[in-house]
Amino acid sequence: MTGGSKPERDDEYFMNVALTLARESRTEDVPVGAVVVVGGEIVGKGVNQGRIRHDPTGHAEIVALRMAAEALQNYRLPKSVLYVTLEPCFMCFGALLESRVSRLVFGAREPRRGVTGSLYDLHNDPRLTHRVEVVEGACAEESAALLREFFEKKRGRENGSGMRSVPSSPGRSFPQ
Fold it and tell me: Alpha-carbon distance 52 to 82, whole Å?
Protein backbone atom coordinates (compact mmCIF):
# COMPACT_ATOMS: atom_id res chain seq x y z
CA MET A 1 0.00 0.00 0.00
CA THR A 2 1.34 3.41 -0.91
CA GLY A 3 1.10 6.55 1.21
CA GLY A 4 -2.20 8.09 0.07
CA SER A 5 -4.17 5.04 -1.05
CA LYS A 6 -7.09 3.56 0.86
CA PRO A 7 -6.68 0.19 2.55
CA GLU A 8 -8.22 -2.71 0.66
CA ARG A 9 -11.73 -3.44 1.85
CA ASP A 10 -12.92 -7.02 1.65
CA ASP A 11 -16.08 -9.06 2.18
CA GLU A 12 -15.50 -9.30 5.91
CA TYR A 13 -15.20 -5.52 6.23
CA PHE A 14 -18.48 -4.84 4.44
CA MET A 15 -20.28 -7.69 6.22
CA ASN A 16 -19.20 -6.14 9.51
CA VAL A 17 -20.76 -2.85 8.37
CA ALA A 18 -24.00 -4.74 7.63
CA LEU A 19 -23.82 -6.46 11.03
CA THR A 20 -23.31 -3.13 12.78
CA LEU A 21 -26.38 -1.74 11.00
CA ALA A 22 -28.41 -4.78 12.09
CA ARG A 23 -27.23 -4.51 15.70
CA GLU A 24 -27.98 -0.79 15.87
CA SER A 25 -31.37 -0.89 14.10
CA ARG A 26 -33.26 -0.60 17.40
CA THR A 27 -36.62 -1.60 15.97
CA GLU A 28 -39.00 -4.48 16.54
CA ASP A 29 -38.08 -5.80 13.12
CA VAL A 30 -35.82 -8.81 12.68
CA PRO A 31 -32.25 -7.40 12.85
CA VAL A 32 -31.01 -7.65 9.28
CA GLY A 33 -28.51 -5.22 7.80
CA ALA A 34 -27.50 -4.66 4.19
CA VAL A 35 -25.06 -2.49 2.28
CA VAL A 36 -24.59 -1.94 -1.45
CA VAL A 37 -21.02 -1.36 -2.58
CA VAL A 38 -19.80 -0.02 -5.92
CA GLY A 39 -16.11 0.43 -6.59
CA GLY A 40 -15.22 -0.20 -2.96
CA GLU A 41 -17.56 2.54 -1.66
CA ILE A 42 -20.85 2.10 0.18
CA VAL A 43 -23.64 3.68 -1.85
CA GLY A 44 -26.64 2.22 -0.01
CA LYS A 45 -27.48 1.00 3.49
CA GLY A 46 -30.57 -0.62 4.91
CA VAL A 47 -32.13 -2.40 7.85
CA ASN A 48 -35.46 -4.18 8.07
CA GLN A 49 -38.24 -1.60 8.38
CA GLY A 50 -41.39 -3.53 7.53
CA ARG A 51 -42.99 -3.30 10.96
CA ILE A 52 -42.12 0.30 11.79
CA ARG A 53 -43.10 1.59 8.34
CA HIS A 54 -46.02 -0.80 7.81
CA ASP A 55 -44.35 -1.78 4.54
CA PRO A 56 -44.22 -5.40 3.39
CA THR A 57 -41.33 -4.48 1.07
CA GLY A 58 -39.30 -2.93 3.90
CA HIS A 59 -36.58 -5.57 3.90
CA ALA A 60 -32.99 -4.44 4.48
CA GLU A 61 -31.97 -5.41 0.95
CA ILE A 62 -34.76 -3.37 -0.67
CA VAL A 63 -34.01 -0.34 1.51
CA ALA A 64 -30.29 -0.52 0.62
CA LEU A 65 -31.01 -0.99 -3.10
CA ARG A 66 -33.37 2.00 -3.11
CA MET A 67 -30.76 4.18 -1.43
CA ALA A 68 -28.06 3.05 -3.87
CA ALA A 69 -30.29 3.66 -6.90
CA GLU A 70 -31.10 7.15 -5.63
CA ALA A 71 -27.44 7.92 -4.89
CA LEU A 72 -26.36 6.78 -8.37
CA GLN A 73 -29.47 8.13 -10.10
CA ASN A 74 -29.96 4.80 -11.85
CA TYR A 75 -32.23 1.86 -11.11
CA ARG A 76 -29.57 -0.43 -12.59
CA LEU A 77 -26.63 -1.14 -10.31
CA PRO A 78 -24.14 -3.01 -12.50
CA LYS A 79 -20.83 -3.98 -10.90
CA SER A 80 -22.39 -3.63 -7.46
CA VAL A 81 -22.15 -6.00 -4.52
CA LEU A 82 -24.90 -6.45 -1.96
CA TYR A 83 -23.78 -7.54 1.51
CA VAL A 84 -26.59 -8.76 3.78
CA THR A 85 -26.62 -10.58 7.09
CA LEU A 86 -29.42 -13.00 6.11
CA GLU A 87 -30.03 -14.98 2.92
CA PRO A 88 -32.49 -13.11 0.66
CA CYS A 89 -36.12 -14.08 0.09
CA PHE A 90 -37.90 -14.25 -3.30
CA MET A 91 -38.77 -10.55 -3.29
CA CYS A 92 -35.28 -9.39 -2.42
CA PHE A 93 -33.61 -11.71 -4.90
CA GLY A 94 -36.01 -10.44 -7.57
CA ALA A 95 -34.92 -6.89 -6.75
CA LEU A 96 -31.27 -7.98 -7.07
CA LEU A 97 -32.02 -9.32 -10.54
CA GLU A 98 -33.95 -6.21 -11.61
CA SER A 99 -31.20 -3.89 -10.41
CA ARG A 100 -28.50 -6.05 -12.01
CA VAL A 101 -26.46 -6.54 -8.86
CA SER A 102 -23.34 -8.50 -9.84
CA ARG A 103 -22.53 -10.18 -6.56
CA LEU A 104 -24.35 -11.15 -3.38
CA VAL A 105 -22.55 -11.91 -0.12
CA PHE A 106 -24.68 -13.11 2.79
CA GLY A 107 -24.11 -14.39 6.30
CA ALA A 108 -26.74 -16.71 7.78
CA ARG A 109 -29.00 -19.02 5.82
CA GLU A 110 -32.77 -18.51 5.98
CA PRO A 111 -34.25 -22.04 5.93
CA ARG A 112 -37.88 -20.95 5.53
CA ARG A 113 -37.58 -18.26 2.85
CA GLY A 114 -34.01 -18.20 1.56
CA VAL A 115 -33.72 -18.59 -2.19
CA THR A 116 -29.95 -18.72 -2.74
CA GLY A 117 -29.20 -22.10 -1.23
CA SER A 118 -31.72 -22.94 1.48
CA LEU A 119 -35.22 -23.23 0.04
CA TYR A 120 -34.26 -22.69 -3.60
CA ASP A 121 -31.16 -22.04 -5.70
CA LEU A 122 -32.54 -19.25 -7.88
CA HIS A 123 -29.10 -17.90 -8.72
CA ASN A 124 -28.39 -21.16 -10.55
CA ASP A 125 -31.63 -21.20 -12.57
CA PRO A 126 -30.60 -21.24 -16.26
CA ARG A 127 -33.90 -19.60 -17.29
CA LEU A 128 -32.93 -16.30 -15.67
CA THR A 129 -31.38 -13.69 -17.95
CA HIS A 130 -29.13 -12.13 -15.29
CA ARG A 131 -26.56 -13.97 -13.22
CA VAL A 132 -25.63 -13.05 -9.68
CA GLU A 133 -22.51 -14.51 -8.11
CA VAL A 134 -23.43 -15.72 -4.63
CA VAL A 135 -21.04 -16.06 -1.70
CA GLU A 136 -22.50 -17.49 1.47
CA GLY A 137 -21.19 -17.74 4.98
CA ALA A 138 -19.37 -14.41 5.40
CA CYS A 139 -19.63 -13.59 9.12
CA ALA A 140 -22.15 -16.44 9.35
CA GLU A 141 -21.62 -17.11 13.06
CA GLU A 142 -22.10 -13.48 14.02
CA SER A 143 -25.16 -13.13 11.78
CA ALA A 144 -26.78 -16.29 13.14
CA ALA A 145 -25.98 -15.28 16.75
CA LEU A 146 -27.62 -11.88 16.28
CA LEU A 147 -30.78 -13.49 14.93
CA ARG A 148 -30.78 -16.17 17.63
CA GLU A 149 -30.46 -13.53 20.38
CA PHE A 150 -33.26 -11.48 18.85
CA PHE A 151 -35.68 -14.41 18.74
CA GLU A 152 -34.73 -15.64 22.21
CA LYS A 153 -35.37 -12.19 23.65
CA LYS A 154 -38.57 -11.72 21.64
CA ARG A 155 -39.97 -14.99 22.88
CA GLY A 156 -38.73 -14.53 26.44
CA ARG A 157 -36.32 -17.41 26.30
CA GLU A 158 -33.26 -16.62 28.30
CA ASN A 159 -31.73 -20.08 28.21
CA GLY A 160 -32.47 -20.84 24.55
CA SER A 161 -34.81 -23.75 25.31
CA GLY A 162 -37.36 -24.51 22.68
CA MET A 163 -35.14 -23.49 19.78
CA ARG A 164 -35.78 -25.26 16.54
CA SER A 165 -32.82 -27.06 15.12
CA VAL A 166 -33.00 -25.65 11.61
CA PRO A 167 -29.73 -24.68 9.96
CA SER A 168 -29.41 -20.96 9.34
CA SER A 169 -25.83 -21.10 8.19
CA PRO A 170 -23.42 -23.95 7.80
CA GLY A 171 -23.66 -25.71 11.15
CA ARG A 172 -25.74 -22.96 12.80
CA SER A 173 -29.40 -22.53 13.69
CA PHE A 174 -31.69 -19.82 14.92
CA PRO A 175 -35.30 -19.98 16.14
CA GLN A 176 -38.10 -19.46 13.65
Answer: 23
